[in-house]
Predict the 3D structure of the following.
Amino acid sequence: MRQSQLFTKTRKDAPSDEVSKNAILLSRAGYIYKEMAGAYAYLPLGLRVIDNIKKIVREEMNALGAQEIIMTALQRKELWETTDRWSDEKVDVWFKSTLKNGTEVGFGWSHEEPITDMMKNYISSYRDLPVFTYQFQTKLRNELRAKSGIMRGREFVMKDMYSYVLDAEAHKKFYDATIQAYLNVFKRAGIGDRTFVTFASGGAFTEFSHEFQTLTDSGEDTIYLAREKGIAINKEVLRDDVLEKLGVKREDLEEVAAAEVGNIFDFGGMKSTELGLFYKNEAGESVPVHLGSYGIGITRLMGVVVEALSDEKGIVWPKELSPFAAHLVLAGTSETSRALAEEVYKTLSESGIEVLFDDRDVRAGEKFADSDLLGIPTRVIVGDRTANGMLEVKDRATGDVKEMTLDELTSELKK
Amino acid sequence: MRQSQLFTKTRKDAPSDEVSKNAILLSRAGYIYKEMAGAYAYLPLGLRVIDNIKKIVREEMNALGAQEIIMTALQRKELWETTDRWSDEKVDVWFKSTLKNGTEVGFGWSHEEPITDMMKNYISSYRDLPVFTYQFQTKLRNELRAKSGIMRGREFVMKDMYSYVLDAEAHKKFYDATIQAYLNVFKRAGIGDRTFVTFASGGAFTEFSHEFQTLTDSGEDTIYLAREKGIAINKEVLRDDVLEKLGVKREDLEEVAAAEVGNIFDFGGMKSTELGLFYKNEAGESVPVHLGSYGIGITRLMGVVVEALSDEKGIVWPKELSPFAAHLVLAGTSETSRALAEEVYKTLSESGIEVLFDDRDVRAGEKFADSDLLGIPTRVIVGDRTANGMLEVKDRATGDVKEMTLDELTSELKK
């Protein structure tokens, strides 16, 4: 895409009320636009990042055998009353409104209830299990405060997956496979080395639940990390008996700030019992279906990646998240340099490589600063002194510069 | 995909309160699930159709030079007050709620206001124009009644595009190009031959606006069609002076039922003036930006296609909308037939062809009835008598049956 055609522009300043690094950088670079506190529009570059994250998550969830669906934002009061999660005293983030006929409706902040209720149409026998399903849903939550940019919003995209299985054993198997799939997601999202499966309190059915926590100074959570052992513990379960069970000594723990990027829960048969989702086993007995739920905040993950990987010059995208594979910057002013840049653009595009081509009529220094801010991993610079067919290729993350022929660059980017 | 793995099942009956053909067939076939009147979940097969429609629309909008974004559901009261579209007297489909601090918010039923307001950040000079942008947004509308299945809902997906240009002349050019792009969309969606650009009343700026109307008995609108001339007229503008202007005689008009699948509007400079979106022209004068808006109901289009193309046995998908390219039905019970079906499944899948493989352990008659209901265009039948490597291939729309080798079938489906 030609940058001269992109309708967004970089800005020197973010909106004055932004305090979080992710929102400041993403607003300045033109990835997002703040509609109101906690609600952001995703502009062409931002939507590309979101789509890249969805692609990774979709691939990993499909590999688990999960089937994608999309539920509704509108929620039925009587359904949520069944599980005692309708009243504002029990759930304090509901947005509610009223149909013309006076019926109260809610806007989905979570979807265990409607999905589980729907499954009564499709699950009645042990032969119908297991069912794994997920969606990318825009969740609406009436949060009291919303100051963390796209890390915690009143409106945000979440991938929520649900597993319906026979029993605890089958649950454990899928749960463990999901932990691995989640680690794959975070690795591909560029934060694998700083993201830890974290022990948290387990609720009614299991001793522990698990969170995925990414180390970043701006994280809202504090976790305790036995880095050598790759074990992390949430504040809730930082007790001597837990430490003993996990074989970790208190003095080996580092207290670190972290942001939650995923969570997985075991509901056992509770929700199914409440909502009436039972299956007949081989003996003909009625058994509640065992439910697990598995979340990844898609927009939140984008924010955490910006918080964790950006530097003083701007955003640094990992390869699989970047809106473009390469940022081609025409830094020269001569006819020759423009012709060469056009040739590079054409060749890379025809090889199926996504390129943002800064063909704008502005100073090279401004282009470089914008390129640092935008954070595309590979920058290709064509200047007036570019000669002998050698292109200057700069790595955004390390700052390393290499000279490459167009052929070499094409092969490199196709990897 | 193996049908035995698909969690949805076909049903003999739709929910008892469904009256529209589209909702009845799509529910019975497991494409959609009714959460409440006017709000449907899209299940694995249904989401595939929606994604196919989005793909077509995205390709055609991108070809116009439009850039995809996604705005928010949450809407600011003060913004919509600016254009006098906040009060329930002026707009009777708002869902509204209240933030914790008492601020009223709305849920987006349309997005001209927030997109135009946002553009003040990106458009200030004639050099910034034109800007064409679009989104696939879940719209929320508090409709009094919702009985047309997915054709008119309280929650539905719409593609809305916006053009910001210099003047009426530039607008006309893009508007005309969009008419052509829309006709491409409807042709690819299988309803090109029954969809007509229809003259409707134009509002403040132009004599006419345009709708795209698809002929179907269940359509909510009545249009007047000069079929020979390819001209259609909305009831609103069925006046002698209009007929004369269009060169159509009243006695040549057919009165037909139709469903609106798209619409395009010319706002002129009105919204930009109201919201303060001006650009500086070459003479340095401040001029309101000329706005056009262009809608296609994505979920509605899916419903209209079902209404228009289905037959007494079930749904008939056009090729580009079908959830799978082929429905492979194992009708035999012998080991040989199962092995052959597995081979066909493997070969087609490895050729990149999307296949639904009915490998279930149910009677052939039930499989054929389900296949008719599901509506995948090409059915491949492997029975006990399938021999000499010849496969029975049935066209869902025409009922025509051909015998083909696996090689011939693969080539045919790859077209």
Summary: The longest helix of chain A spans residues 168-188. Chain A has two domains: 21-73+108-309, 326-414. The CA atoms of residues 131 and 408 of chain A lie 46 Å apart. Chain A touches chain B through 52 residues (CB under 8 Å).
